[in-house]
Fold this protein.
Amino acid sequence: MNRLLIASLTMFAATHAFADVDAAKAQGIASKNMCFSCHAVDHKVVGPAYHDVGEKYKGDAAAMATLMKKVKGGGSGVWGAVPMPPNPGISDADLKVVLTWVLAGAPKQ
Ligand code: HEC
């Protein structure tokens, strides 16, 4: 492979992986919806670190749908016995922004 091709493939991979992740917007929405009262990016609070959630579901194509339901309806047993209460107030559009960010490993930027 020539160098130009490698460079453009690397650039494609870099821009593509985080193409629709908006970390600032996601953190604003999570903050407004009180998600950060139980979650942090890089350590466990009441719920798991968002970084760890991203790692757990890496490559899982069904994760977005599963987690949309789980956050809206609440539940327990995946990370421990402590349940997450339902969060019915967050809109699907807002939740998708947050989960896209979480599933990307919750990058700071
Ligand atoms: C009152 C505390 C609390 C609040 C508020 C809360 N969570 Fe959670 N969350 C938890 C707990 C506890 C778990 C672990 C549940 C389990 O083990 O199945 C969890 C798990 C999760 C998971 C992983 C679920 C899984 O099945 O792997 C995601 C994603 C998540 N929360 C996102 C959110 C979002 C987004 C919000 C805000 C809309 C939010 N949480 C608000 C406590 C909370």
